[in-house]
Input
Amino acid sequence: MNRFVYADHAATTNVAPEVLEEMLPCFGAEYGNPSSLYGIGQNASRMVADARARIAKVLGAKPTEIFFTSCGSESDNWAIKGVAHANASRGKHIITTVYEHHAVLHTMDALKKEGFEITYLKVNEEGLISPEQLEAAIRPDTILVAMMYANNEIGTILPIKEMAAVAHAHKVYFFTDAVQAIGNIPVDVSELGVDLLALSGHKIHAPKGIGVLYVRTGTRIANLIDGGGQERSRRGGTENVAYIRGLAKALELAVEGLPDMKRVAAMRDRLAEGIAKIPYTRINGSMEHRLPGNLNVAFEFIEGESLILLLDMAGICASTGSACSTASLEPSHVLLSIGLPHEKAHGSLRLTLSHGNTEEDVDYILEKLPPIVERLREMSPLYETNS
Output
């Protein structure tokens, strides 16, 4: 019987038992609407306030700076469009990177149709960008820099604190998509100096359907949803009390689990060493500036989709890149941005480990992966030509 190994934590995570326990009362006796004035409504209101305060404490923020959303993509959209629309009179130039999540890139495309001008900073072969690159790109009409904290495909960590300082020296707002960073590395908005930050619950063992946008006090941002007075009248709609409580617990657990990331990184390194022994293989991204559980590998002469299906048959869950773009037949824009040609980018594999993984999981992947790669290459005429 095959072992089951979940190695796709960058795509999503299971709901932690402690998180579910925190949520359950809201599906039963504590079902009140936080806007209601009677008892169970006010109980719900207190639950939301308590969760907001707990989340703010974890992030180094004020409770009034925490806004609940449905996901990371919504937070990305709100941060970028909200700042753009609220500050368009000052300028219509925005800076981002070539390898952002599609929630950011497609938002930029939408703004371009409204007359905004976007500058895309290029990355080097490790996926890194320097503060000097950002400095050179800022113009008098720049109003926002949007830059992810850690790349969702290759795990490269950017120097966000330094980047935010550059932006602020020019009185430019700085937003970071920290969806992949949260739970993997320390994240403190006061330490980083960012004006806006997005995160998503389902990456850290909370349910799918809950996210946060941090907005520093004084940041000019347009409302997302006009309606009720929820979220300080900036995002109308009845609060998802259960998921909000679950997210607060998940964030607390994520911080408690950060010391274990040294063990996760050691497993990742052993996995990288074993996979590197497979011929015609390349590790993508920086090994020094990288999320602890992330490993992205390019195998020549094979298709990533076939690799994922055969790994699944062996009981191993992995991906070719972002889970949000798995239906696309186009090669990863992230891998193309670091210089991989199309044919090599098509043969990519992303393995992302976390707390639940063990050394035995690593052993199993290293046992099953090489023969699967060899099997697929035996069917490739290109491999026969080059071998």
Observations:
- The radius of gyration is 22 Å.
